[in-house]
Amino acid sequence: MEFRHLGASGMKVSEITYGNWITHGGQVEDDAATACVRAALDAGITTFDTADAYANGAAEEVLGRALKGVRRASLEVFTKVYFPTGPKGHNDTGLSRKHVLESIDGSLARLGTDYVDLYQAHRYDAFTPLEETMQAFADVVRAGKALYIGVSEWTAEQLRAGQALAADLGFRLVSNQPQYSALWRVIEGEVVPASQELGIGQVVFSPIAQGVLTGKYKPGRQPPAGSRATDEKGGGAQFVQRWLRDDLLARVQELGPIAAELDLTPAQLAVAWVLQNPNVASAIIGASRPEQVAENVKAAGVVIPLPLMERIDEVLGDAIERDPARTAANAPAQRLA
């Protein structure tokens, strides 16, 4: 495993982060989830990402149990706040002072830890004054409940405004967690340049585009049984559906020979691709089986030569989404409750 600094902070994280969105508390049973976490630890992963909204708190509980007994100082545990939780009442969402300060205590209890290494704003809250949110985060840090603060899917403008307020309050934003893959590059035009300027690193999710970049989804065929595209129970199907176009899937099949040139699987190539961006601190992988963790971890430390990076661009062509406006579109347009 290789390690990188998280933004301009002094903390290092593993190049591969294990994330339990969708899977823990939802798609897979607790025993399988625990086996995946143990496989991540065995593979050298020290960074684990979750959120209070995942399975309405159950994902945090599963992760906490799976990490029990591991030396806490050897881990980097991340969680998030924003989306509706608990009974989902009128104050059980957003980034108000009330919700942030109550949510961190709930997350710590579920995770079974006294602090998290990184506490993240899961989205930008346009309905709470940014000053209120940043003051709440400052108080979380001062109370020792989080060591660092990050955000997720914020625009370049939002990052600049948040960082300016954070600096006035005596802390810094160190990370952003956006979607990023060879197919989804919307952060490259504005978010990454702003982040480099501000000392913010990316911890990216969906580097395999919900499994599409593994090549297992074939044009003109039904999704394989047991794949995320068939997961109606855990919600995976709704997220992968947008990628299941025959023209796009045909292009993805052409990435197989490129991966083979590097002695990688298509999934490993996809994870290694996002790690070529120097502003990326870590790529989040998920898994429903331990062997998936062991395989994807092999992307750490891989250097993809420039000619092959250019060939990937040529193969994917106009299937690549680059519009920076898609980041703002990911933020909820109205308060969720």
Automatic annotation (TrEMBL):
Pfam families on file: Aldo_ket_red
Top-level taxon in the UniProt lineage: Bacteria
Entry keywords, A to Z: NADP, Oxidoreductase
Domain NADP-dependent oxidoreductase: 15-315
CDD domains: Aldo_ket_red_shaker-like
GO molecular function: oxidoreductase activity
Family note: Belongs to the shaker potassium channel beta subunit family.
Name of this protein: Aldo/keto reductase
Organism listed in the record: Amnibacterium setariae
